[in-house]
């Protein structure tokens, strides 16, 4: 679902240029408005759509994925800490609204102060566990959960 | 220097009626260029077609009184104070350039059409307007432009779209130099007239016409938000509203019934790609 820019809404601020992980949002050299230079390389992450302060970026769904004429629009409100979606079908009959939290604490207030954390011992370095595991993943009730320890096995083929 | 009317001294060399004729021709060029620009870009057609399309997804109709209130807020926020810009630097630069241009052009017209006026306020405003325009314009040109600030391109890379800002900057710069060097028929006067003719005559090729269609686009955007259509965007939820909390129980569960302001996050940083 490659992105496109409503030129009448864009003010060329460059937020989408900054955030695009595929580096395909650029500023048009003549119009000084953002545009997607290579829609086929867009991986539909919605980063630019969410970052745009004017909601000037929209996403055009491929016909095999979503019915033509549908609309999936989003507003990420950083100050409220929520993300709101609205999905509307072509005929307008299906019009869904979704709202979800994206943070429960003010931004930047829960950054770990790694300078105060004691350095890992040699034993910890040689272990297969990552930094602060198992504490951070709350597996302090025992070892790592594996498929084997849970009596599971990988099945061949596409799983539905 | 600031209090002397440079056009009064010029009237000794050029009859006032010629100067007045020049102003009228420039006015007609702006009007003609804007109409041609609208016909070529089909911006008016797009505007009405988009408004028609948006009306279909409207949830309620916006009354006449409400439209007047919307037009007033567009005038106050978008037109007079350039509220569309989120970036405060760009907003300030646009305010300086816009108000500088308006003050400069209006005082020029008044001084030329009332040559007998001995007011010292008008020449002062004329100089202040030109200075505001130059400060806002050069700031924009060298530091704020998206292709310079975000794309890392050279400040001296020129495009046809630059015709507007460059002719605007040239007009104010040569006007100030002409005035500070004593006025009269000099090479700076010729450059001032040349750049202002390019500015007003090049409306079709420049973005001068944006001052006419931008307020219309801002008005339409606000009407779309007021009629509930919101261009298919989700509503602006009030997280403390019990109805919103009932509809989306994740919000009170994880954030509490009265979530705090979470801060600016990504908006705390200015876009600076390079």
From TrEMBL, chain A:
Molecular function GO terms recorded: 4 iron, 4 sulfur cluster binding; metal ion binding
Keyword annotations from UniProtKB, A to Z: 4Fe-4S, Iron, Iron-sulfur, Metal-binding
Record-annotated 4Fe-4S ferredoxin-type domain positions: 1-30, 33-62
Gene3D superfamilies: 3.30.70.20, Adenylylsulphate reductase, beta subunit, C-terminal domain
InterPro entries in the cross-refs: 4Fe4S_Fe-S-bd (IPR017896), 4Fe4S_Fe_S_CS (IPR017900), AprB (IPR011802), AprB_C (IPR022738), APS_reduc_Bsu_C_sf (IPR038465), Fe-S_Ferredoxin (IPR050572)
Name under which the protein is recorded: Ferredoxin-2
Species this chain originates from: mine drainage metagenome
